[in-house]
UniProtKB/TrEMBL annotation, chains A, B:
<keyword id="KW-0812">Transmembrane</keyword>
<feature type="domain" description="Ion transport">
    <location>
        <begin position="380"/>
        <end position="633"/>
    </location>
</feature>
<dbReference type="GO" id="GO:0005216">
    <property type="term" value="F:monoatomic ion channel activity"/>
</dbReference>
<protein>
    <submittedName>
        <fullName>Two pore segment channel 3</fullName>
    </submittedName>
</protein>
<feature type="transmembrane region" description="Helical">
    <location>
        <begin position="63"/>
        <end position="83"/>
    </location>
</feature>
<feature type="transmembrane region" description="Helical">
    <location>
        <begin position="232"/>
        <end position="258"/>
    </location>
</feature>
<feature type="transmembrane region" description="Helical">
    <location>
        <begin position="104"/>
        <end position="123"/>
    </location>
</feature>
<feature type="transmembrane region" description="Helical">
    <location>
        <begin position="381"/>
        <end position="399"/>
    </location>
</feature>
<feature type="transmembrane region" description="Helical">
    <location>
        <begin position="605"/>
        <end position="632"/>
    </location>
</feature>
<keyword id="KW-1133">Transmembrane helix</keyword>
<feature type="transmembrane region" description="Helical">
    <location>
        <begin position="200"/>
        <end position="220"/>
    </location>
</feature>
<keyword id="KW-0472">Membrane</keyword>
<feature type="transmembrane region" description="Helical">
    <location>
        <begin position="38"/>
        <end position="57"/>
    </location>
</feature>
<feature type="transmembrane region" description="Helical">
    <location>
        <begin position="500"/>
        <end position="522"/>
    </location>
</feature>
<dbReference type="InterPro" id="IPR027359">
    <property type="entry name" value="Volt_channel_dom_sf"/>
</dbReference>
<feature type="transmembrane region" description="Helical">
    <location>
        <begin position="439"/>
        <end position="460"/>
    </location>
</feature>
<dbReference type="GO" id="GO:0016020">
    <property type="term" value="C:membrane"/>
</dbReference>
Length: 675, 675
């Protein structure tokens, strides 16, 4: 009566680095297995997305919906989150539940949201002005759910870097203060004027702000020009300023963030490894049997098989036997602990079975012309010919598609690409061609087939109604251009870089979540502060207010002159796009001045805060992360486990895949194995 | 008859990492010692500076001088460089001289310069148009002289990173090409217009260029606005573009540069250590004596002393004895090899001698009030009171100095600062107070005394002629503000950061040289291409051409509107300032469009090339360098040698300095020793 469920849970927790102190009673274990079911997770994230998307429909809305509709959906979301939390509470030990700050956070967020909804509903019903302040809490759910492990780690790495950043930031601010004072003394009394005739560098606060903006380089060289025009020695002042504050301090910020990131990463990995070992030891404890009196406790192959079948049901028998042969060491306890890592090493079991056509009509497939064809397709020249075709295609795409010759050439190229895929399918076993890691094969096929469909739809529409849909045409164009990307795969150096980027992709997605959390909060606050202050008029509008974005205060400002009216906080989509522009930093001071003009000078605080949090802290963490990820990937050595697995595969006299040229698998990633 | 000169040369070559294959004949050795004399080096660098500064006086000149004058000075410079080279040729082995590419480089540069001068002189004499093209070669002398070791290393680290950068750059350009094609297809036919009414995104080359500029963020969000105004989905295109090309690719550039920098640094350090050991072994070989038949060869203390006296004449006897006690190991050969490193470890020999006042009038200095005063000055509160004074001073500086009360308060503050220095000099031994590493003491004293002198001159001028010189006043203001910086030294966290920055300072200077070499070349080329195309008119000028920088082609362009007329290549100083602006990147496209308008569209190549070389390559190396330097300094562990020296100091029962609080020495740097 071994509790296989319990052991399997330990192993899969170890495999996915889950640290949940679940109850070990059989019923709780079953509940926990349900809790980890992928469908429930997808459901949770779906409602998370719905909850976040509500901002599109709530005032200020992109597509307005009545309040009761959005409220109803929100209540549904809250309900789902509550159920999920109750499920979690049933799974884990009661005292652990109440000690975990993230559970408390979720409860607080849900309660506050409910309270806010009631207040807001009541205020609206009584026709009062209300603010849905609890909307800023929504993205915090993403961080606090059990599945938000990676995201929490990213936030933790920021929190860890903060004390260090703080001191450098203080010094940096001190430097700005000193330089501002110097600028005031040197330039304030010279009677210089800005380009628009206003006095130059006369107010200390304004100078401080201008110099802060100069650190971001957004107002360079304009801020320097009046002084430089007066005397070129003043340029030296600004050059020294930029050198110290933009180059040295910004590098020091990166250095400090990167340093704390590396230090923290090491500690984190160490903890993860410890927790993993701990769980595997527990799993071993559950499975072990005393084979003989006084002997070492062991795990039999039968229980081992049952365990692995439970943990990873879709593993082939051959693969499982391979893993057992690696695990069945003299010191079984130690070998068992590796199982979680072993399961995480991807092994592509390339079935060395023959091509389906060979079974269907062997005489034809084995004939001399057919063999010649196979050789041709596998030849280097084949790849080069198609690279050439892609280049010619690129030129044709660049030419005017109104020309009927050019428009028809598209069919030729489409036919050529489809021919390529068919030829490859003729030569290579389809299951190998479309294996999970053949990124470029999938990419090619999807792009070419989509392009075919879109082109057909387009030409059908054109011939039937003499009118081609702009949207369809856009999609066709995008697909055509995307097809060209494939050419990079032919150059080995490029492939290495691209593969590195693809591999750090998932981790970049974690950063994407982090950015969305921060953006969402700023978007909600920004919308409350600035909604409706700036209006965008369509190109075709003849409204005179168009020249000043519908707000007379903006008349003659750079904001209006640069036609920035659409950069506003009037709905959540505009807000997000505006926040991206603020992250890019350039011209952010014009945007900021615009919003400060239509509201109050203190509106600057919002923008400066955004700059400090997103650009100085988060973007530096992002760069630190890309740097570290790149170094790790560049110096990719296979782990000991991977090598021992490979040795085992060879020992077992299983030929290591020879299909490397065909495979186009992500290099250095999974192990190939002809099973 | 030991050749002490030869041994000393080996040791000092090892100490300063010189790799010169000099002739070991006594005469050549003496010549080599002369070659290494500091005065000759200073002379060389002085004439290097003169040679580079000629650009200020040559056409297009800041201060024009007749051609014969600059030519005469240049010939003098060339003569000095030739003499220096001949001196070097006499020192080293003949075949080594001709095998060394840097000697060949110098000869080629000198010859080409001479040829160019003759041609130019002849052309000018015949009143033809001539170009002084050899001016771009001038800064290359900085790189190729024997002393330019650090600079060559910096260039080598760039050269080593190039192959890696090249592939990423190709991929990056490919990405721009693909996005440009997509932009052309998506946006080219929509009839959109830029803010000035020109068609938007219709030419492939223009799109490519605009998107390249977008990577530098200089035209964000303006380049996106027309498309975004038409449909907000197009913003997605630009956001994806920025994400991939600005954030990911730029991080990858940094990662690649940093990676190759680190790898190369390790290799470089390994080679340096090997070369150093090799030289020390040779020095040992020269000095060793066979004390007894068949015994180990040893270096006697007498020869050792003579050697060290030759290498470092200003070392105190106590210090030399300390070093001997560290070196006099059983395994003398190994210990001897460390000598070069030992000499490089700075030891501050704090003479524990009494305060001069104590010797002069001991009764007064030892009296109770005097002792109380000493205690007061050494108390924490003393520092805090002065920090407070500095803060109050900052407020006073910020106020209007026209107010007589404020103007007079300056005398009070000056008196307070002088009092502080005098008090400290009363308490601490002056030689300790002004020791080499007491950065802040030196800083304080110099600033305060300069401020005193400048303020006196200013008030004398004011009272005598009722007119204060603007320049003197500017200096007074700068000194006053600089005085405030001292406050950061009171906060420990700040001190650590500042000290780190001070310590990486010398290496940043090497980068400064590198930047000057590159800037100088670009300035010379830029001046030939763009001189006189744009004219700057003084503020007071009433010339109508002022509105378009004296060039009708610029009428109505952003360049003229933004008042960028002084951003020109009309002389070497303007050129350098303009190149700094281009390095900062912001608005570089407006500057570039300006110069392309007044010359030819291909002028863009000059600016893009500058961007690629300086911003993508050199600045990334700079950041990589700051990162690495910061990590090394942050994780500063004393080397084994330093610890063994410290242990020895303690063993010898010499008290380790107790003056740490007083010292304010660069933390973690030199060892203090009360000898």
């Amino acid at each position: 009566e071994i509790d296989f469920n319990l052991a399997a849970i330990y192993v899969s927790d170890a495999q996915y680095n889950r640290n949940v102190y679940f109850d070990t009673l059989p019923q709780a274990v079953r509940l926990y297995m349900l809790y980890n079911h992928w469908a429930l997770k997808v459901l949770l994230y779906f409602f998370m997305l719905v909850n976040l998307s509500l901002a599109i429909f709530e005032d200020p809305a992109v597509y307005p919906l009545p309040i009761w509709a959005t409220m109803l959906v929100e209540i549904l979301c809250l309900l789902i989150f509550t159920i999920r939390l109750i499920h979690y509470a049933k799974v884990i030990l009661r005292d652990k539940f109440w000690k975990d700050p993230k559970n408390i956070c979720i409860i607080v967020i849900l309660t506050l949201t409910l309270v806010d909804m009631i207040i807001y509903g009541a205020l609206k019903a009584a026709n009062y002005y209300g603010v849905r302040w609890s909307r800023v809490l929504r993205p915090l759910l993403l961080v606090n759910v059990t599945e938000g492990r990676q995201l929490r780690r990213a936030f933790r790495s920021i929190r860890n870097a903060l004390p260090q950043i703080f001191y450098v930031f203080m010094l940096f601010m001190f430097s700005i203060l000193i330089f501002s004072l110097m600028a005031l003394k040197l330039l304030g009394k010279r009677g210089l004027t800005n380009i628009n005739g206003t006095p130059y560098f006369t107010s200390y606060l304004e100078i401080m702000f201008d110099l802060y903006v100069l650190v971001t380089t957004a107002n360079s060289p304009d801020v320097m020009m009046p002084a430089y025009n007066a005397n070129f020695f003043f340029a030296v002042f600004f050059i020294v300023y930029i050198l110290i504050n933009t180059y040295i301090f910004m590098s020091v910020f990166l250095a400090v963030v990167y340093n704390s990131y590396k230090k923290y990463l090491k500690e984190e990995v160490r903890q993860l490894v410890r927790a993993k070992r701990h769980k595997m030891v527990r799993a071993f404890g559950v499975l072990q049997e005393q084979r003989e009196e006084g002997g070492e406790p062991v795990v039999t192959q039968a229980s081992w098989n049952q365990l692995v079948r439970l943990v990873q049901p879709n593993l082939s028998n051959a693969h499982r036997e391979l893993l057992w042969s690696v695990s069945d060491d003299k010191n079984q306890g130690v070998a068992f602990v590796q199982l979680a890592d072993l399961l995480n090493i991807e092994i592509i079991t390339i079935k060395s079975r023959p091509h389906p056509l060979q079974s269907l009509c062997p005489s034809l497939y084995q004939s001399a012309p057919s063999k010649l064809l196979c050789q041709l397709v596998q030849h280097r020249a084949f790849v080069m010919v198609y690279d050439l075709i892609i280049l010619v295609n690129a030129v044709f795409i660049g030419l005017d598609e109104e020309n009927p010759m050019i428009a028809n050439s598209e069919w030729v190229f489409l036919a050529l690409y489809i021919l390529e895929i068919l030829l490859k399918l003729y030569v290579f076993e389809p299951r190998v061609f479309f294996s999970k890691h053949s990124f470029w094969n999938w990419f090619d096929t999807i792009i070419v087939i989509s392009a075919l469909i879109a082109t057909i739809i387009n030409s059908v529409m054109k011939s039937s109604s003499h009118f081609s849909s702009r949207q369809i045409l856009d999609i066709v164009f995008i697909l055509r251009v995307l097809r060209l990307i494939r050419v990079v795969d032919s150059i080995k150096r490029f492939r290495i870089i691209i593969n590195t980027l693809i591999r750090i992709g998932p981790a970049i997605l974690t950063f994407g979540q982090l950015i969305i959390v921060v953006y969402y909060i700023f978007a909600m606050v920004g919308m409350e502060l600035f909604k409706g202050k700036v209006t965008f008029y369509e190109q075709s509008s003849t409204n005179l207010a168009k020249a000043y974005c519908g707000n007379p205060l903006l008349n003659g400002t750079d904001f209006a002159k640069l036609n920035y009216c659409k950069n506003n906080f009037n709905n959540v989509v505009s807000s997000f796009i505006l926040l991206v522009e603020l992250t890019v930093v350039n011209q952010w001071h014009d945007i900021l001045y615009g919003f400060a003009t239509v509201t109050h000078i203190s509106a600057r605080i919002f923008f400066v805060l955004f700059h400090i949090i997103v650009v100085i802290v988060i973007l530096n963490i992002f760069v630190a992360f890309v740097l570290e990820a790149f170094f790790v990937e560049y110096s990719v050595d296979k782990s000991d486990l991977q090598t021992s697995l490979e040795r085992k595969i060879e020992e077992l006299e299983l030929a290591v895949a020879q299909y490397v040229t065909l495979q186009r698998v992500v290099s250095g990633g999974p192990i190939e194995w002809v099973g």
